[in-house]
Amino acid sequence: MLPTSSALTRLTEPDAFWWATGIEDTFITAPHPRTGRTLDEYELTQHYERWHDDLGLMAELGVRCARYGIPWHRIQPSPTAWDWRFVDQAIDRMLSLGIDPMVDLVHYGLPPWIEGAFLNPDYPKYVAEYAARVAERLRGKVRWYTPLNEPRITAWYCGRLGWWPPYQRSWSGFVAVMLSICEGIVATVRALQSVDPEIVAYHVDATDLYETNDPALAKETERRQAIVFLALDLISGKVDPNHALWDWLRAHGAAENRLQEFSQRPLALPVIGINLYPIFTRKQVLRDAKGRLRIAMPYAKADLVTRLGRLYFERYRAPLMISETATKGSVQRRQDWLTQSLSAVKDLRAGGVPLVGYTWWPMFALVTWAYRQGRRPVDAHLLQMGLWDLDPGSTGSLNRVRTPLVTAYQAIVARKAEPVGLLAPKSNRLAPGALTNSAIA
Hints:
This protein is of the alpha/beta class. It has 15 helices and 17 strands. The protein has helices at about 5-10, 40-45, 45-60, 70-75, 85-95, 125-135, 150-160, 170-195, 220-230, 230-235, 245-250, 255-265, 305-315, 330-350, 405-415; strands spanning about 20, 25-30, 40, 65-70, 100-105, 145, 200-205, 210, 270-275, 280-285, 295, 320-325, 355-360, 365, 380-385, 390, 400.
């Protein structure tokens, strides 16, 4: 079913505030060398089998858009094979329900045939071809695309921590993966817009806020915060010899000509998605009793939202959307975060920051990433962060259990509850077409 013209434009309506949700879509296809396990969230949460009903639940919330990942490894199982069945069915189902997909093209993992993963020298070419094929397939149906979700976290797990391919474990590995990822993002955006110039590149990254009480760690804290911005700084052309990380990047193997390529042909940032969680996002830099550097993660208050929103807007002067937020634990704890974070959204918008949407992510529980290298069953790794819980029951089928958060979110989306003050002052509203022009600067 093709959407109407109004469905094609409603994501760029100038006065809109976009309530959204999404389904966790991490795809790590490489078997762990010890356990043999992969990490495909759609498989682990049984979404491949239950996609029709899951999208029906999504529609119950009343959201008009949703982030939705598509599995590259299934779409292109080999360099010359393409299988569109799942994508066609899921996207058409969303559109028939009145939900505009914000398509997530790459969410951490790649097809296994790309040897060396992000460090394959042809990765930017491969991802650009994939993006162009998707855009052609979904032309007239999808307007917003995330080229790659959370480039910094991807580079961390693939290049510094060594959990995921290509299993690098150094800052030089982090830099190498980050540069390739960002080259892929640039190639992806250009490929998308070669198919449809009206496509909006929705750049989504994880937002950490680094702090310290130790003056001796001030420089390290500043460096860590600068690394948080690195991907967006690279693709938007902010990294030059005056950048805070220029010498650090060069010392860790970044060739000057590769860095200059980004600044010579920067991308515009039509809208930035910020992922933030009270359980993960606040970082405290400290030394332990033995003098070793440690990063603690104290639970954050809702001023996290306002602080990060102002920080990102001051740096990039681009519209923002909360592309992921939630917390784990009891329904009451999740309800408290929903209420408090939306109050912070109201403060941000009243203060002139053009924050244009809010996404509760994930819609239902996810499977923790430790599953891939562990031995315990899936149900031992369920992280209840959603509006629905997942309950394995007695048969192994992961039942979607409705919590009171569903009703609460429905009321907010329908404006039956007004925790935000949805309409910002006129000076904060986006001009018509402001989010449609993501042309390369």
